[in-house]
Structures are given as C-alpha cells and as structure tokens.
Amino acid sequence: MKKSTLVFILACILISSCREGNQKSSINSQIKTEIEKPIKNGNPMVADVGMADPHIKIFNNKAFLYATRDEDKTAKKFVMPDWKIWSSDDLIHWNLETTINPTETYMGASKNCWATDAAYKNGNYYFYFSNGNVNTGVMVGKTPTGPFKDVLGKPMLPEDLTPIKEYDPTVLIDDDAQKTAYIAFGHHRSGDPDFYYMIAKLNTDMVSLAETPKEIKIIGDVNVLGGNDKPTLHKHNGLYYLSAGSHYATSKNIYGPYTKRGNSGNNNYGLTSRAHGNYFNWNNQSFHTWCHFHLGKDVARYRESYIAYLHYKNNGEMITDTNFLDAHFSTGVGQYDANWDKIESEWYMVAENIEKKESPNGGFEIQNITQKSYLLFPNVYYINDKRSITFYVSSLEGAIIEIRANNSKGKVLASCNIPKTGGWNNYQPIKCNLNNTNGVKDVYITFKGSGNDLLHLDWFLFNN
C-alpha cells in the first residue's frame, strides 16, 4: 500500500471519529440542556382541560385534586359533564386518576356536575358533589381516588331541606378529640335575606346530618364577600376561615359569626370572589389553589386552575403570594431558576422546626431556626455555572448555614459563617463559595449553632 493511500485512510478514520465525537457531544449537550430546564410549567396546573373548582387534599402524604370540568370554550352557560380526580407528589406534575360520571350517581345523565369537596374519616374517603345549584350528594370509597359508590342513591342535602339552595358543599373535619365533621353550603349575598350560607354538624357516618343546618352570619364593613356561592372552610392556628373565592372572613367559633377580613389576593390572576378553590397545608407550607375565567366570563364559562404559596400574617390575615405570581407565575410552586434575582426564603416546599413570620423588610421570612431546622427547595435549575451563594440574614449570636444536595445530610455544597449582625432588624448579605456539580439540585438549607432562634433568613441568591 502506498504511503499516500495509508495517510488518506487514516485521515478519513480520524475525520469520521471526530464527526462521531462531535455528534455524541452534541447529543449529550442536548440531553443535558433538556435535563437542565423545567419539563413542565406549574401554572395552569393542567392546561386545556377546563379544570375548575379545584380542591386539593393531602392524603397519605400525597396531593389529590378534586375538580369539576368546563367542557366548552365557547359556552355562555356552564357545561360541566363530569368530575376529575388528579394526584401529585410535587404539586407540579398531575396524573389523572379517576373520572366520575353523573350516571354513577342519583343524578343520571347531566352536564351540571358542579363544585365538590372530599374528606377522610373512619377508614373511608367521602366525595361530596353538587347537582347543579339544586342539591348535594355524597359517594364513599376506600381510596382517595375511589372507586366511589353513591351509598344513599338520593341527595344527602335535598332541595327542600332549608330555605336556601343546598349546593356547593365544603367539609371540615375539626382537630378536636372526636374529629368532629361539619358541612357548609349555599349562596351568600350581602343584604339579601334569601341568600346565605348554612352549616351543620355531620354524623360519624359522614353521610347524614347530626343537626338542623344553621345560618352562618357574616359581619363587618370590609368590602368583600358581597355575594357568591361555593363557600370553603379551613382552620389555621385555632381560627376558622370561611372563604368564597379569595374573599374571606374569620371566626373563633365554627358556627360564626364570621368577621370579614379581606381578599387574600389582589384581583389579578382571577383572585376575586369567583376564584373557587381552597387553602391547604403540606409539609409545613401553606398553599392556595383557585380557578379563573381566563378567557373572560363574558366570553365563555370556561376556566383553568392555578396554585401559589400562601402566607399568614401575625394577626391571621392571609396573603396569596402575588409577588411570586408577578415574577414567576408560569413556573408555579416547587421549582426554581438559579438565575432569578433572588429566591425568597418563604418559597420553600418542605420545612422542619421553623416558623414563617412577617419580615421587618416587608413580606415574610423564616424565623425560630434551630440546629434541627431545614428548608427544602427542590428542582433548582440552571445551577451549573453558579460559584457562590448569598444569604440575606440577621442574627444575634451568629450561626452556620450549610447548603446540601438532594437530602438534608447530603453532600455539602456550601458552608457560610453568619456573624452577629447587631440586632434582628440589622440584615447583612453574606456570600460564600459554592462547590457545585452538574445537574438539577434539590437544595437543602441546614443550620448549625446553639439556641432556639439562630438567625432570620429573608432571601438568598446564586451568583456566577
């Protein structure tokens, strides 16, 4: 073989190898890029399905979303053919578990499958549903997703039960020793004696009333709760909350009277009295989920559903985090971009041994931190090129903040010595190196020090 021929063959092999290597590099880069970006937006929670009236319940450390469905994007009246049950482990990815058709109930064929709620007691799961604005039924199952059976075969709240319309139920199981359950329902209009909410205690069977329903009195001069259906009840720190959309009132007695408090939102993102949904807690974090006529109610009776972090002021007022929505609406909860200008400490997904409190800087922060405390911020994307992290903190005695990857005892990515800042209202930005590695991170923030209030953490950010 001539030397020139051999050189030519070797050159071809080399070129081919380089091309293959470049192709593999390109493929690996593409895979890495795909891994490094969020694979799903968080809002709307599920797009283009007409998800409405969302109620999220936590059963067995898993989120279950009970929702109605608007069928027609052009309908001028509600067309709601069935109910859907979705599940999620992270409040980002939702799996459709069950469709309940009205033919499985006393309703028969219908497109009036209005708002719902769900509860667990005595080893059973209960699915409460509205037959339009006429009456309320109940189904019972052994799992959060059914199968459910209409055990009564007739309305639980028949239309002649009270002077009002018996629909749009909400169920609360109290935290007393007996786990007493209550159901509220109806349509409230301020100043109209024919429209109000009612409440009654449930029997232990959860499918019958233990008492005659009573009117819920709503008092106060705040310009909210002027009129809407779909009441929702929940309890926080010993206070009962009665809401319609994002308008709410509170009482120390579940029967009321309830004093008007305000709007947890600001009328943006559909946060009005029409924002049917619920408030719930999971892993020491609070959330708000609701639906919105995003096409315009005058255009169509068609909605989609959203989720955001929720915070409680020291006086019990609720705040749906519209600052988060303004900056990161489509991202939703439970995932973060390391390129954000900052990540607020109250945007965590899981926490232990902390308190979320109002901050003197405005908004909220994390306080009462001990050595046993931690915060989890899962799914932090675009962190690869970050070489340091900055914490905005105050501390009386000083402490250490550690950043760990993927679990609370995982690899230490950063260790920051927090000095005494001279008072709780004296905040300092503390920057430390980040020993980073490739890949999306579940970022755990842990703490070292002595005492029951090591530091107050307002926010943090990643730096290139």
Mean pLDDT over all positions: 92
Helix content: under 10%
* Main sheet summary: 6 strands, mixed
Classify the beta-strand content into a percent band: 35-45%
pLDDT below 50 for ≥5 consecutive residues: which ranges? 1-34
Derived structural class: mainly beta
Shape: globular
Q: Assembly type of the shown chains?
A: single chain
Number of strands: 34
- Number of H- or I-type helical stretches: 2
Radius of gyration: 26 Å
N- and C-termini, Cα separation: 56 Å
Could you characterize what this model shows?
The chain is mostly beta strands and 464 residues long. It contains two helices and 34 strands. It has helices at 3-36, 322-328; strands at 51-59, 62-69, 83-88, 95-100, 113-121, 124-131, 135-141, 170-173, 181-186, 188-189, 197-201, 214-215, 218-219, 227-228, 231-236, 239-244, 247-251, 258-263, 277-282, 285-292, 304-312, 318-320, 336-337, 343-344, 350-352, 355-358, 364-367, 374-381, 388-394, 399-405, 411-418, 428-433, 441-448, 456-463. Strand 19 (277-282) and strand 20 (285-292) form a beta hairpin. The longest helix is centred in the N-terminal third of the chain and has 34 residues, at 3-36. It starts with a helix and ends with a strand. The model is unreliable at 1-34 (pLDDT under 50).
